[in-house]
Amino acid sequence: MTMADDWAMLLTDIPGVLNPDRGAHGEVVRPQRGEFVQLRDSVGGQRILFYPDEKGIAITVSVPDDQGAATRLRSVLRSQRTTSFSRGRDYESGGMRPLEESVWHPLPGSARAVTENCNVGEPKVDSENLAREWRTGWRYNAGYREEIAAAIVAVIRDGLGSAPTDLRLCAYDDAGPARAPRLGSVVSDQPTSRGAARCTGWDDFTDRLGWVLTTLPCQGYLDLPITGTSLLIQLSKGQSGDVIDGELWNEKWANPGPPELHDPLVRLGWRWGTPDYLIDHPDNRKWMGPRTGSGTANPTMHSLAARAVATLRTIGGISDPNMLEFRAFVNGAEVQELPYVGKELGLSDA
What we know:
By secondary structure, the protein is α+β, with helices and mostly antiparallel strands. It is about 25% helix and about 25% strand.
């Protein structure tokens, strides 16, 4: 099979992603809010994310950190135009005509996240150049899915510079990992589904941790104690969406700790402050990492996974991920353990 065949199969399968199931009266019963399908570039870390919104299926692409790669992607995104989205009045004929517009639009929230610490009076946010995600999509009854699929393939191939063999696929919803659809020859991102057994090192663990965080159930938590210290890394997902919070706990301290701890944590990207959910308790402070997920300045899980691993190694001095302790659970009405996480991290056989 050639690369051209791989691209052709991907082009054929993309229009069926999250294809709606309808009820007796034609209403859409599936997909539901909270369902996601992700295509990830395993080399660069960028992702294409599919999820339902109020009109149909929204599709976002994340922008690389590297400025050269980001410029190339934005150039491809800006070049794609369509007349399939909307119609406007033709004042000469009095009839309606298709309007030409952009296929992709910068996601405003992700641009604001980049400049959330800007001072009042600073220049207006440059959404196109600062947005960490761009968005397109299709309505459920749209006849232009193939056109959007072709745009997505061009973005992956020409904008991100990815090959089909670089891509990994996963699906998840509010309950955790879900069955992924077929997308050409793209292989699963789930570690055990691609034959991974025990964790082989920190690079392998970082990759596995990215999948675990991406597919974590709503109200799901992953605790990673730093052996030999009173520190605990806690990574958690809220009640909806795919946004993950990273926090570093130290129950013994009400301050950021001594310089030998404070300075390395700052260099690793942690910030001492009060989380949003404790805004009414400003004295309750802890170390926090940047929020990660859709609409943030860090739309993929790679930066969060890499920061957690760097902290375990730098602060904890842990030489091998197989030495790690962990706990994964859902903190709902009842606490529910997540036994699959250990196997996917490659830290247990059960």
